[in-house]
Amino acid sequence: MGLAGKYEGNEIEVVNAAYLDKQGVAYDVEAFRALSEEGNSISFLLENEKAVGMVAQGDRIKKNAKTMVEALKKQGVVPVMLTGDNEAAARSVARQLGIADVHAALLPDDKEKIIRQYEEQGKVVMMVGDGINDAPSLARADIGIAIGAGTDVAIDSADVVLVRSDPADILKFLTPARRTSRKMVQNLWWGAGYNIVAIPLAAGVLAPIGILLDPAVGAALMSVSTVVVALNALTLRLKDK
């Protein structure tokens, strides 16, 4: 909820609105709402538990962010926003990006809990984050993706790191991942299909009707099967070119 320290004998705190509400500290609610609705994150300066200042900070949304979200939707990915920012700021950014599912004013354990709930519903969850608060969620998610310019603890908790720190690279990550998964299934069927047919023939299942697989032929077919699987896997590189 913020930071606290002492300065010249005074208790100084930099906190969010949730902390003020919890402690019953008075502040300019109208100014807070107006700034929040513009998409700003609001921090309050307290001196000896009295609000003496307010700072509004807003991040510019990356130009390709909305395009990325739309592309993810087309691929069947449902975007969800998890943020420690206030509700008004979160809703403002979500509207601009086209994200309907928004969870705001979250602590680190709140984010992790929401991801666990999605997983318990049978969903596969991919979490993208860059901060200390995101580390538990990155570790909990089925796929944790850290922004390269983020904190070390977030990077250490993730499965994938976006070196260029560009969220749009998520699309570049998903495409080869899905293609690789398809190739794995195809190659599994190539290998299993050969064995399902060839092993019974080599064992003499059809010998009574005169059909028997010669061991030498079986060995040759095994080599052919291996080559087919290898060539099929190599088509991943050919398509990328």
- Mean pLDDT, to the nearest integer, reads 86
Order of helices and strands: EEHHEEHEHEHEHEHEHH
Task: Give me the secondary-structure category.
Answer: alpha/beta
Relative helix content: 40-55%
How far from one another are the termini? 49 Å
Q: Give the C-alpha Rg.
A: 27 Å
Strand content range: 15-25%
Give a brief outline of the structure:
The protein has 241 residues and is an alpha/beta fold.
Description:
- The protein has 241 residues and is α/β, with parallel strands linked by helices.
- It has nine helices and nine strands.
- It has helices at 17-23, 29-36, 65-74, 87-97, 108-120, 135-140, 152-157, 169-202, 215-240, and strands spanning 2-7, 10-15, 41-47, 50-57, 80-82, 101-103, 126-129, 143-147, 160-162.
- The strands form three sheets. It has a four-stranded antiparallel sheet. The chain has a three-stranded parallel sheet with strand order 7-8-9. The chain has a two-stranded parallel ribbon with strand order 5-6.
- β8 (143-147), α7 (152-157) and β9 (160-162) form a beta-alpha-beta unit.
- α8 (169-202) packs antiparallel against α9.
- The longest helix is centred in the last third of the chain and has 34 residues, at 169-202.
- It is elongated and about 95 Å long.
